[in-house]
Structures are given as C-alpha cells and as structure tokens.
Design brief:
With about 180 residues, the chain is of the alpha+beta class. The protein contains three helices and 13 strands.
Length: about 180
Amino acid sequence: MGNMTATNSGPMTVKDLEGMPDDGRRYELIDGVLIVTPTPGTRHQRIALRLFALLDDACPPEYGVLAAPYAVHWGDYIELQPDVLVGRFEDFTARDLPVPPVLAVEVLSPSTRLIDLNTKKAVYERLGVPSYWVIDPAEPRLTVFELDDGAYREVGIAVAAEVYQAAKPFLVRVVPAELLGRWGH
C-alpha cells in the first residue's frame, strides 16, 4: 500500500487513500474497508468510454458526465469511482463529487461482478443515488435500477441490439451492442 503502514487504529478514511500507489488499480473505500480492483480490460473500457460519450452528448447543461477514475465522496469512510457517473453540474468540485451522483454506472468484469451487483449497488442505494446502471460486456447487457421508495427496482433491460430509452436522469437512447462497436466481434 505505498508508503502506508497497517495499524489497528480503525477503519480507513478517504484521507488514507491519498497514500495509495498510482499503479493503474482502482482504490475505493466502502464504510472504511478498502476495495482494490485491477486495471479493466478492453471490452470494459470500450463500453465505459462509448457510454461516457453517449451520455455526454445527450447531457443537458445542469448535469455533468465523468468517467473513472473520478471520486465520489460521502463522509470520511466512502469513496467510490463509478465507471461513468452523472452529477448535477453545481455539485462538482475541482477534485471530486462530494454528494451522490444522479446516475452511477458500473461495467462488470470478472473481478468486480459480485462487488458491483451487490456491495456497490447496496451502497449507491443507501446513499440515495436515483439511477444505477450495470452493463455486462459479455452479452452485452444493460440492466437499469431506479430508486423507488428508498430501494432499487429493476426498471429496464436491453440485450445486444435492443434499445433502452432512458428517461432518467435525462433522455438518452442506449443500445448495448453499439457501445462495443467493432470490438463486439
């Protein structure tokens, strides 16, 4: 962990993450527990970057779209880096998004699948992130969850060439296969 030393002084904090090495891995913090994931693969990156461009092109001026690595902070013990996020433009600082985004997107990989579908989904839900999208690059498949009375409810699925017409956080048309382009073969 870079120049950090392990102690039994309690959970890690967001400040502790500043000492993590710049080695291509993603370092996130969930309730003071460090989550380390490896550098993403080709299909993952292709989907994340094309989705970023698609959302950015459709984004109204009151929102901003960013891609990982970019930190969402919530208190001293949570720092997440969704693959793609949408936040209210006025909420972004020069360093991070200190409030929950309006949309968090995670692109699954073998090393993050369980975390993205369970742990991160539960944290985003707890923080009140209105929309959570999960994309499985293997199919490709988009699954959309939206908060309904404080809990996520699955509101849409699009597989391969199927179209998902999102209304939240703004209107945008997503076709999972198009996010891969020529990399989908």
